[in-house]
Amino acid sequence: MKNVTDSFLSLGHWPSAGSFGFNTDILSTNLINLSVVLGVLIFFGKGVLSDLLDNRRQRILNTIRNSEELRGGAIEQLEKARARLRKVEMEADQFRVNGYSEIEREKLNLINSTSKTLEQLENYKNETIQFEQQRAINQVRQRVFQQALRGALGTLNSCLNNELHLRTISANIGILGSMKEITD
């Protein structure tokens, strides 16, 4: 540190215009060189540094403005998306309610249709039973009639003798002959 102060004190003792030479004191020469370089840099670099800082500040401000615009756009899109979400949720609730009512309506329609089908099947069953009963009654009547006819024929055959039998055949032939005459 003493050398630094000595170098500044020794500046005042330089002889004027007499001698020119190299200063071999490293600390004093570096300090002078640094002072000169800093002075030149400050004098000439001040404008360049100021321009660089101004450009950097403008870029930062532009980036902030762009970010604010993007943020505003994002907030606007978020609000639109929220509005669409609310709308979709309301539509989903409406579809859900409509779907439940539609399901209930379809359920009632299915129950009504099934009950009508069961009623028709019951009617068909009753009609089939009545038909089968009537058919069975008709078959019984037919068998009774056949048995009665067999019984009557058996009685007639046992009661008829040959003479009565021949007379009956002759009478029937006479009836058929008279019928033929009437038709001619």
UniProtKB/TrEMBL annotation:
Location of the protein in the cell: Membrane
Membrane topology: Single-pass membrane protein
Family indicated by similarity: Belongs to the ATPase B chain family.
HAMAP family according to UniProt: ATP_synth_b_bprime
InterPro entries cross-referenced by the UniProt entry: ATP_synth_b/b'su_bac/chlpt (IPR002146)
Role, per record: F(1)F(0) ATP synthase produces ATP from ADP in the presence of a proton or sodium gradient. F-type ATPases consist of two structural domains, F(1) containing the extramembraneous catalytic core and F(0) containing the membrane proton channel, linked together by a central stalk and a peripheral stalk. During catalysis, ATP synthesis in the catalytic domain of F(1) is coupled via a rotary mechanism of the central stalk subunits to proton translocation.
Organism: Wrightia natalensis
Name of the featured protein: ATP synthase CF0 B subunit
Residue runs in coiled coils: 71-98
Main location as per UniProt: membrane
Residue spans crossing the bilayer: 31-49
GO CC annotation: proton-transporting ATP synthase complex
Keyword check for Transport: yes
Keywords: ATP synthesis, CF(0), Coiled coil, Hydrogen ion transport, Ion transport, Membrane, Plastid, Transmembrane, Transmembrane helix, Transport
Taxonomic lineage: Eukaryota, Viridiplantae, Streptophyta, Embryophyta, Tracheophyta
One Gene Ontology biological process: proton motive force-driven ATP synthesis
